[in-house]
Amino acid sequence: TLARNPEIRWRLRPEDLADLNGRQVKLLCSALEQLKPGGRLVYSTCSLEPEENEWVVQEALAGRADVRWVSGEEALRAHLSDTKTVKQLFDEKGFFRTFPPEHATDGFFAVVLERD
């Protein structure tokens, strides 16, 4: 995102991350309340910051035994023939991540959440 919109780096400050985190946790919690049992939701950001990614997911799922994250690797693998490339896009927890120098794209994060 910064590559295409470099002015962002001059508008945001490190202390803005706490505010963004709080907003995103509220949005995700609200969306999870609407999710039916067996339903899936994809939480995705164009950020590499843990405050906007896995921290948001962890905070939103705290105390919720009815929602868990599932790896999106299988779903993506069905659409791509190069399984080695697919594996590189997911970390050990099943979170999808792209990193600009490695993947020649913007930095992204995504996770599939499923309600039991």
Concise structural overview:
This protein is α+β, with helices and mostly antiparallel strands and 116 residues long.
Let me know the number of strands: 4
Provide the β-strand percentage band.
15-25%
Distance between the termini: 34 Å
* Helical fraction: 25-40%
Class by helix and strand content? alpha+beta
Which residues form runs of ≥5 with pLDDT under 50? none
Q: Radius of gyration over alpha carbons?
A: 15 Å
Gross morphology is flat
The H/E string reads HHEHEHHEHE
Largest sheet: 4 strands, antiparallel
Mean pLDDT: 87
Number of helices: 6
Topology:
Layout: H1 8-11, H2 16-34, E1 40-45, H3 54-61, E2 67-70, H4 73-77, H5 83-88, E3 96-98, H6 100-103, E4 108-115
Helix pairs in contact: 2-3
Commentary on this structure:
This protein is α+β, with helices and mostly antiparallel strands. Helices cover 40% and strands 18% of the residues. The chain is built from six helices and four strands, in the order H-H-E-H-E-H-H-E-H-E. It has helices spanning 8-11, 16-34, 54-61, 73-77, 83-88, 100-103; strands at residues 40-45, 67-70, 96-98, 108-115. Strands 1, 2, 3 and 4 form a four-stranded antiparallel beta sheet that branches. Helix 2 (16-34) packs across helix 3. The longest helix has 19 residues, at 16-34.
Features:
alpha+beta; 116 residues; 4-stranded antiparallel β-sheet
